[in-house]
Specification:
Blueprint lengths: L14 H12 L4 E2 H10 L6 H13 L4 E4 L5 E4 L8 E5 L5 E4 L2 H13 L10 E4 L2 H6 L2
Parallel strand pairs: 4-6
Antiparallel strand pairs: 1-3, 2-3, 4-5
Subunit structure: Homodimer.
Organism: Enteractinococcus helveticum
GO molecular function: DNA-binding transcription factor activity; transcription cis-regulatory region binding; zinc ion binding
Length: 139
Amino acid sequence: MSSASSPRPRTRNTWQKQAIDAILDQSTDFLSAQQVHQSVAESGRTVSLATVYRVLQAQVEDGVVDILALDDGQTLFRKCVSTGHHHHLVCRNCRATQEIEAPKIEQWANHVGAEFGYTDVNHTLEIYGLCPQCAQAGA
């Protein structure tokens, strides 16, 4: 467990991590661990799927990578532009994603927690819909 005074990443800077970082850095989309694994393989490197999952999970815990859980149970990963707390607006069809800040949601979540005596409240929120392009195409 890392302390606030000396935050240390949970992952060493191995070639596997560097290869996974390169894939995530090149993509603006959320990717599955399988897609990351395939992309690393296509770059000519061999890494196990288990290693990809471990590196991605450690990066989620380090706050470097965001995670998106889809309705079908699939988990996707992406390096986000925003470094602070934020939410995502996700197209159900093409998975286009917008990062959004929602101060009223933050206030509401804190209020609900306080109402029931909870402290140190956190939450996740993903909003799903159709992006303008998919809505126009009739998806």
